[in-house]
Design goal:
Length: 720
Amino acid sequence: MTDKYKDETLSFRERAKDLVSKMTLEEKVYQTLHGAPAIDRLGVKAYNYWNEALHGVARAGVATVFPQAIGLAAAFDEDLIEEIADCISTEGRGKFNMQQEYGDTDIYKGLTFWSPNVNIFRDPRWGRGHETFGEDPYLTSRLGVRFINGIQGRHEKYLKAAACAKHFAVHSGPEDERHSFNAVASAKDMRETYFPAFKACVKEAHVEAVMGAYNRTNGEPCCGSRTLLKDVLRDEWGFDGHVTSDCWAIKDFHEYHMVTDGPKESAALAMNNGCDLNCGNINGNLIQAEKDGLISEETIEQSVTRLFETRMKLGLFDESGDNPYSNISYDVVDCDEHKALNLKASEKCITLLKNDDKILPLKKESIKKIGIIGPNADNRRALVGNYEGTASEYVTILDGIREYLGDSVRIKYSEGCSICKDRISGLAQANDRTAEARAVAAESDVVIACFGLDPSLEGEEGDQGNEFASGDKPNLKLPGIQEDVLKAIYESGKPVVLVLLSGSAIAVPWADEHIPAIIQGWYPGAQGGRAIARVLFGEVNPEGKLPVTFYKTTEELPDFRDYSMDGRTYRYMKNEALYPFGYGLSYTDYEISYAETDTDELGVDKKVKVSASITNTGAMDGAQTVQVYVKFLSDGAPNYQLKALKKVWLCVGETKHIEFTLDADSFGLYVDDGVKVLSKGNYEIYVGMSQPDERSIKLTGKKPVCIAMHYDGDDVIVPE
């Protein structure tokens, strides 16, 4: 067979090399654009690499719209993440197969999904933080790996879809400076915080693609960084997939970063350092760059080969029926099974932050009138976050409660205020809905106050309609006059349940002091209102945990532009949190009846088996996340760090035995030069349902079991 690229018995790499060898230089170059044109003479169809699947197939019509990524992280449930990602890629295949049938190869119509976002949510002001899995490297790693498993599938030969870990590697704002910003991070912080999730995605999940970031890291533009893309990603971690730039990021090299003199140099710098795909059009300059000696044709050919290997792994060049994914029907999109999974996901991410006197769950039969007040009560945008698809049905909180209660309870509604302005009607005076909110509260037996944020207030720089322009939050307060309206509702003397919808932490110390029940609902997906109603009335037992710290004030945060982790996140913060990472209440009670290890001695080659039993001692079935934290008892060491977790479902009175395995990697700490070391000294393992910090213990009334460990040997480097 002369066309080896058609020979399905050969490896994808061999086939891709053969195909690329038949292309002209110009054809090769234009295949490195995200909108790759057809090459009819070789049977190559047009293909657009740009597609999104952060929490559902995005921007291409109807699809199941799951809770935003930060909400999915709050479930603290690895199995759920993979189940959802598997559903997303199933719908992605169903849509792709349909689109191919009708000749639609437009943007957002491919199988290369630029998700997940595994950047660390280091600062709660960052607008894109709700796209991530939170502030912790361990949690982000575990969820990132399982999300990729679900997207890519577990077939021995073919990819169901291609996932992409983004944005490599040190990237979390400020959004309005991202095209010119230089993120300066120490080797220790890089290895301890910014790298682990990407490393896990590459080495464990075998992610097919990695996307660079807009900014520079330690002086190098990320999409053309020799350190990141060659030294670490390919040489150290062995990544053999393809790297894509963020969109139009390569032109930033000469326009804003000022590290090159023009488009030719920028395109050559990116590809010479391992960036294969250009989201944008600047790579057209590679034709002249090759003629000028700035890049070799062999280097271009290497990048194109990687790109075609991905397309071949997706089965796009195979005629045989071996690829089971090519038979997925469009009928799977938005099917009843996927809607049910979406509702389950919404329920699992809802996080109960406060429940004084067990005011929740509400008793339907004891309520005649219920007030629903606030700008997020009937706000579809606050259901879905960004990078979203189109749902066939949106269930707001107002919709969900109305559906749940039917005609048995009178519902009175007021928007209360704008999400961020001081009036709703442009010609009105300020506070133009406060009187109505007061009246609704006064006439109700209980009030559901629906406040928080929506994607018009936090998101990506340049997103249309973003009220704060850059996408970042100026502070952690409830925007506009929301807190004033909440206080007016409270003054009615009626029981108030505060439901916060947001993709990030909000500082609500007044509410914590005065409002008896608080729920964090995140951006809970298209079924979110239905899920929140079911939690409010006890059909569902809340099980979410915070994947980010809720701080008391903005003022305690370090400078937003400072990428040092000192003082940031639960691992390094010095002040007491309002609501700590890993915290979340339930309607039932759980007890860790015992926890022990099979040894109290650590070693570089030793594994520690941690055993524990957990019992549901309350009156309602539910799920609890058992969390394992490790602490090195030494000055300068981080606070407790999450090192293992497991979600456990327990019926009333049921006990389950669970086990974890920790190795030296769980106890070693990075030193200043970025080397992980197991140091001589004493350590502690904590097994519980939260962090072992004082605030979590006070809020939960539970103290994690502490197990003393020690290492008596010489300091030793931990192999990675």
